[in-house]
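#structure-requests
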Amino acid sequence: MNRWLALMLKLLVSGTLLFLLFRRIEAQQLHVLLRRANVGLIGLAVSMYTLGQILCAYRWKLLLNAVGFDLPLARTVSLYFLGMFFNLFFPTMVGGDAVKVYYLTREFGDIPRSTTTVLMDRDAGLGALLLVAVVVSGVARVRFLDVPMFPLLVGMFAAFGVANLLLFYDPTYRRLARWFERLRWTRLAGLTRQLHAAFSAYRQSLDRLLGAVGLSLLFDMALIGFAYLAARAIGWPVAFTYFCVFIPLIALISMVPITVYGFGLREYAFVFFFSRVGMSEEASLLLSFLFFFIVLVSSLPGAVVYIFYRRRPVS
């Protein structure tokens, strides 16, 4: 009952935000922009995003190897697209991560290490996104509403760094395990120690961890690039530096678990940021819809994987 209530509330938030947006939008202008859209550029954006996801799957394989999981690249790509596909149907934008944990556990029978690899994959992606935004905002001196973005983004990146230090800080796990034991939650105490061992493995595999961050940077540039191509496709060329700053912020905002797959929240963020740097509100909203459409089309291979999925023997 609680899960259904939470889902209904998220649907209500998404619907309310979209309703408020469409009240401000001129439907005729939106239709004109859509008719003028450059299909070739949209197709190129889809190709860029799909290739970027294959790159992310290889990043995940590096992180899998670091904890002792040997999964063939083709299988890794299949499970990655499976997670992307299910992301579209879960109440949050990280629902596909839970699906990847589930299927990876079916492959190897190890929940803590499976969970750790997915968390580290997400962590590497977010860290690289923030790094791109910090560097570009500093070098290009990007301002928004006449406020420099660099100090804000540096603060966010610092907070992200502190969270990661706690993630790899041994006393964090020891104290949690002792606390669970005092409460006689022995299973949680054991799980905490297993997670500690899995995260500690990455300190012994810094080369793979750095490789994952490097691949994340390449993917993030592809992500920003396809959003830029989508804007060009509807005839609104905005400076590329704004995309380097706004797309990471929109990605983070969309992950706030108050809507279904970021609907409404993501669109509002697109309109809020891009309508203040030269795009019309109609174009900003259409850009957000194209962004989702490109992700949707690129995620469809995951449906094929789901239909034909076959479980390997647990290794």
